[in-house]
Please model this.
Amino acid sequence: AKWRWGDLHKITFAHPLAIGPLALLLNIGPLPRSGDGFSVNNGAYDPAKPYAQTTNASERMIADLSDLDSSLSVTPEGQSGQPGSKFWGDQAPLWNAGDYKPMRFSRDRLGRIEGLLVFRPR
Model:
């Protein structure tokens, strides 16, 4: 009665530089997962790893073409590819729960931009 599939079937978003103890800082997860490669919210697994999820949706989006500001999306690794950013992995709990966040397109709904990263050639 206490056993759960997600206790065995998990996903970790492994950062390419996550070697040894760096995995604790750079990886996102492990997160318990439901389903398998043949269920809704597809998540195939490898029985040899043991049961680690090997495929996932990189983004889920519901686009409302009659009102773009009503559209929803979620990405499992968040909006930042920079470990240490508050946006690194911030959407993983939403993604794992099957939830979404609003997508905003209109200038008056965008809100305040937090930070700016500029790349300039030398």
Summary: The helical segments are 5-8, 22-26, 92-97, 107-110. Residues 92-97 form the longest helix (6 residues).
